[in-house]
């Protein structure tokens, strides 16, 4: 999963690199602000996958494949309906979003939000794969999604479709990878489903949604607010800083993907799971530190190679923002571990840190440096507020 995670991150950043090269800073700022809005609201997708993974891993620990088959069909039906509803809702609010971001046309936003049609069905299949610990198949679906987005996005922007062309691949990739994921679950189709009552499904998913929403929004809302408060050019510069910094955030993502179902299964079996978390934490630090050091020592060279000289104004902010993403990576790992154990109360603490971030940027947004400072403080705070929960878990083992 670390291999697939890095490969996925590679294609995602090739996408960002080519978009930065092919688009002017003003258009790049529009693209990235829309993508970050999409990431925030697609936290619903992450909630679906996390919830599916949690219950699948519990059933898998008891070797109850018949119940997994039923749970899969049940969740898939619900996710299709939810996809249709959310797509309609986002189409309705698109004019408001376009106005807030000062967009000249709502078409790019409409194109992006159309991908919500399959935004919950695909995570349902991926959640089953993750819960069954079929990590190779899961990794393939994630990497192919990023590859399709990159190839189609570059092609369409090169052909002159600008921001709209960069966003079409989100829908196309969702459809294609959804079909492929069915192939990896074909054995479940043959298994006769066993009906059962799913305990605490909505309570768990609601608090998980709140935790994931707070976590995802914390590292995404800054770009959206920057687009609102800064000039178009500075918003484009800020987007380049954010893209580079998020290399550190997303690079160790495969660690959390593996940790979640394994920790959940160990808890279900009454075995020690804290040592597994410590190993995951160490591995996350090892994977992120080299990039953090690179950004500290060679910020100008990094920006020149990836984005070109038109983004050199990002140099003073790269390391500080990357440090914030390092803490968010640690925070995300802790959150995934605690949620895998059913400790969803962390959602309240993470929501508090998000509120502090929004208020902070609303008050301090005169320049890029002020916004980055707020993000850095909040990233450290997001780790600190979760430490008491870790101590409680450690004391119970």
List keywords for this structure.
397 residues; mainly alpha; 18 helices; 0% strand
Secondary-structure element pattern, one letter each: HHHHHHHHHHHHHHHHHH
* Terminal Cα span: 27 Å
Proportion of helical residues: over 70%
As a whole number of angstroms, the C-alpha radius of gyration is 20 Å
Give the helix tally: 18
Q: How would the global form be characterised?
A: globular
Structural class: mainly alpha
- Biggest sheet descriptor: none
Write down the overall mean pLDDT.
87
Number-wise, the strands total 0
Low-confidence runs:
none
Q: What is the percentage of strand-forming residues?
A: under 5%
Task: Give an account of the 3D structure.
With 397 residues, the protein is mostly helical. Helices cover 83% and strands 0% of the residues. It has 18 helices and no strands. The chain has helices at residues 2-22, 25-41, 43-61, 65-100, 107-113, 121-131, 135-184, 186-190, 201-218, 221-229, 232-250, 253-268, 274-297, 299-306, 318-340, 346-363, 368-384, 387-396. The radius of gyration is 20 Å and the shape is globular. The mean pLDDT is 87.
Topology:
Elements: H1 2-22, H2 25-41, H3 43-61, H4 65-100, H5 107-113, H6 121-131, H7 135-184, H8 186-190, H9 201-218, H10 221-229, H11 232-250, H12 253-268, H13 274-297, H14 299-306, H15 318-340, H16 346-363, H17 368-384, H18 387-396
